[in-house]
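Table S5 (text form). Sequence records supplied for joint modeling of the two-component complex.
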Amino acid sequence: MSGSTYYVPEQSKWPILASVSLGLLAYGAAMTITAMTADRDSFGPWVLGGGFLILFYVIFGWFKDQIREEAEGLHSDQLDRSYRQGMLWFIFSEVMFFCAFFGALLYVRVFSVPWIGGEGDKGVTNMLWEGFTATWPLLQTPDMKQFPGASAVIDPWHLPLVNTALLITSSVTVTFAHHALKENKRGALEAWLAATILLAVVFLYFQAVEYHEAYTELGLTLNSGIYGATFFMLTGFHGFHVMLGTTMLFVMLLRCFDGAFSPEKHFAFEAVAWYWHFVDVVWVGLFIFVYIL
Amino acid sequence: MATVDVDLPHVKDEDPHHHGPAKGLGRWLYTTNHKDIGSMYLIFSLSMFMIGGIMALIIRAELFQPGLQLVEPNFFNQMTTMHGLIMVFGAVMPAFVGLANWMIPMQIGAPDMALPRMNNWSFWILPFAFLILLSSLFMPGGAPNFGWTFYAPLSTTYAPESVTFFIFGVHIMGASSIMGAINIIATILNMRAPGMTLMKMPLFVWTWLITAFLLIAVMPVLAGVVTMMLMDIHFGTSFFNAAGGGDPVLFQHVFWFFGHPEVYIMILPAFGIISEIIPTFARKRLFGYSSMVYAVASIALLSFVVWAHHMFTVGMPLVGEVFFMFATMLIAVPTGVKVFNWVATMFRGSMTFETPMLFAIAFVVLFTIGGFSGLMLAIAPADFQYHDTYFVVAHFHYVLVPGAIFSIMAATYYWLPKWTGHQLNETMGKLHFWLSFVGVNVTFFPMHFVGLAGMPRRIPDYALQFADFNSMASVGAFIFGFSQLVFIYNVIQNVRAGEKATAQVWDGAQGLEWTIPSPAPYHTFSKPPKVD
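The corresponding structure-token record, covering 825 residues in total, follows.
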């Protein structure tokens, strides 16, 4: 490597615009939500909308520059390795984000709910709501007026089981697509990628159906105590990641149609595939700890 | 660390990609240069340090005598909260990231950071995040007033409206930290010059590698905890409300799972800096290089299993109290190794006492005092007495002010000639050091006594018997605060003029950064240097 020169990307307007956008998004979201809870008008949605507009402009522009520079052959192997490491560490940070919510679920199930129910080391807390018994899923909350518990929870062996199968299959199909890309079989690549996206969309549809059922038939809502809180936080946050991943896969499909990626160089595709596997693994955790156990 | 021999093919570059800095404001807005970004981080950090410092002086002015004089209690609470948040996230962390930006590429023989545009993005998020945070001071109900640890339900059920702005501010600030940390890890693992093996890396690089790992591991957890707060406040969930089966203590567990590694994020790079400076001015190799690396790594790993020592009085099962007590005390072992090695490096060295060295020695002594009071707090049964008193305030200010802040000042004085090309004004540097040293101790040492006697923290008024020590602490705080003007003067003077610095700057200094001219050229290495 010694003797080759280093490559430093030239100046770019995208980072500063991305920062402006994040600032507007944060401020606008806070304004909107605060006004919503206080039940008054605000121009928060306009700020938020402005943030989104700039964000989309940045996403399109930044990636466009990136793709152009790669096509010009400016990306050295070293930069490629940096991108790979960056993506892996980003996924690790996402794992830790989910860990916070899984940790919360673990804590309430193993410690705090049994304690309020009078069991264990801190069972004395039962005096707060005498007669409260700890169960899981927690359908009878300590204060049913403030947090009316659900009448039942989602049966893991129907939609969630189907969804598990869908996502695991999609992990396999995206791998098939990757192999097709490496063997330069463009038709198979596009077909497997499209299949992956289809599976993802069906998954999201079923999640929507499940949420609808939870809200309308089971009374399982964000407001139905800690079960609803952890259920919707974990599945919702995961669903949000599936949406992001699906969008990314879709962009990859469009780029495939456009003739992008060579059997040797296709980091963007691989990064999306990694992300997709990560989303799948989290789902398996959800299926076990949120739905079954 | 092994000594490095370098050949210098890199000072003149004709590569078309490598041009001088752009002109005007665009240079700073669009830059991908690690030195520009490092400078912006450092200037941002210094301005936050001043704002947070003014808040500290408002607190100390109110506490100069018992009774309520200057500010409303609610405003006092806003000051303690904002002071903590700004100093932790706005002053100390960005300062270390700025130093990392400046020094890591130069120390490992890289042309720049691994992901230069993301680097610019990480920085520019910060001004927006802190604009949001500071704007909350002018909102109805005032700024966040629940302490920098924002315990639920004080920060959920009973919080002012501005809490939502605080939450989103923390979100984007966290994004900035995570991107910064990813960049640093990628740089260290991927951009080292040939021959710069891991165990040849300067300790500042090593400590930052480990710190960056901690950041990526725990900043998302902070994002998670504020997200749960957001849901509890606005969307009817009950994570931190026992009426729905949740638990306010859950907040504390998740927060401190982030919070304790966060504490080490603020001190590990300081360890690295001190391990660079002491060998230079003792003119000896660092004693026990590899044990230093392993000690930092073990401190970092242990930091994940000690969080509940912040919560001894909250009502945990006995097993938890005992586990977290012993795990915490275990950290004293690798920390002891480090202090021993620093002292052993100085032992029989040809010591001189330039400004960076003075700050470094003060760090070793005063940080150790903070470490010992930490050990006292780690003892669960004793902590029942100390908890939430000024003893805790004394403890963490000893590790953060003459710890983290002194190390940042030491680093600034140590590397400033490399950045600006001008030698330090030693007289003014020493004046700054002695004023700061006296100020810090007069401020924080009496807090141990009032704390042990039972004065609670975060209270604008206090009982009469605490009056003498409090007025003393306030005088010290004003000495320390105003002596930072000397620091600013020194830095500005050094940027503007001064005796021309050599490449070597300090005659005992070792490492790649001292092989390049002072000031360091805009693009340091266009070709990888050889490290033997």
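Note: Chain B is about 65% helix and 0% strand.
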